[in-house]
Amino acid sequence: MTNVVFLLVPGVHLLDLSGPAQVFSTSAGLGLGYRLHYVAEQPSVTTAQGLVVQAATSWPELGPDDLVLVPGWRGDTLAGGGPIGPESLAVLRAHHGGGGTVASVCAGAEALGRAGLLDGRRCTTHHEHQDELARRYPRAHVVRDVLFTEDDRVVTSAGIASGIDLALHLVAVRHGVAAAARVARSMVVYARRNGDAAQASAMLRHRAHLNDCVHRAQDLIDAGFDRSLPLSELAGAAGVSERTLTRLFNRATGTTPLRYQQALRLERAEHLIAQGTTVESAARVVGFEDARMLRRLRADARTA
After folding, report:
1. How far apart are CA 16 and CA 118, in angstroms?
2. Which string of b and e fits 101-114 if b means at least 16 CB within 10 Å?
3. What is the pTM of this model?
4. Mean pLDDT by 10 residues, the chain (304 residues)
5. d(Cα 183, Cα 86) in Å, to the nearest integer?
């Protein structure tokens, strides 16, 4: 069971909080093993939208598999908002130092900066606060115009709805992209990613549609992209003819079932190679008979 602890400060934005909370709550409902906690330095917190929420004032016991997330708050400047005491900052530092993950949405990056967790790491925040974040934490590498960043178990997002993207990313890292897609579909949201190639997901890039027929075919490919999947099998799962599936798939995703499967194989292979696996071994793991096709796909991706 993974604990997800939300640190709430006065003026917290509801969507900064509720978006990620919904992702992990939905994940828990799908059996993925999450327990949500809400902690604040006072038992009642008034949100930026005027709703008062209740929170615990003591932290649960945390382990390296747990997540602490700081939602953003309303404020014209980072420096002028989000009162966070030294004890809360100490918990953030200790949790990360013990191998845990910390995350922020929007202005919540300020809390990670105060805790010293942005120094030397890539991070982001809402576009209105990026210049200030860079000034306040000159040792941080502020990345602009992305939905979220991840660097050494420090995950930051741009704000508001991008907190959903951040949470879906964390679910995908832990449970796989197919699980993240199930959560996104349950929430009726696009399973999006930002434009940073290192964080892009081929599966999620092609899930930004609402065609259930195509989703059924994609579910089958996602679960077995490393094996041979004849078009007839995909069409049967989707409940349509092969010709109809090809037409609907291309209309919904901009690609074909085969190319979609190859994109998933390439993405997984690139991850394995980055971890030290040889090209030949990676090719076998993702379902290619030999490394020639993988090498060709990698070359095509570099020149695209």
Report:
1. 20
2. bbbbbbbbbbbbbb
3. 0.69
4. 97 96 97 97 96 97 97 88 89 98 96 97 92 96 87 91 90 85 82 43 73 91 92 95 96 95 90 83 94 94 81
5. 35
SS3 assignment, position 141: strand
> What's the CA gap between 233 and 49, in Å, rounded?
50
- Asked whether the beta carbons of 69 and 37 are under 8 A apart, the reply is no
Residues 6+ apart with CB under 8 A from 245: 213, 214, 217, 231, 234, 235, 238, 257
From residue 5, give the alpha-carbon distance in Å to each of 25, 27, 286: 12, 15, 35
Partners of 52 in the β-ladder:
46
The per-residue DSSP string of 72-128 comes to -B--SSSTTS----HHHHHHHHHHHHTT-EEEEEGGGHHHHHHTT-STTSEE---TT
CB 107 within 8 A of CB 78: yes
For residues 193 and 119, give the distance between their C-alpha atoms in angstroms, rounded to a whole number.
24
The 10 Å Cβ neighbour count of residue 13 is 23
The SS3 assignment for 231 reads helix
The pair of structure tokens assigned to 140 is: 């941080």
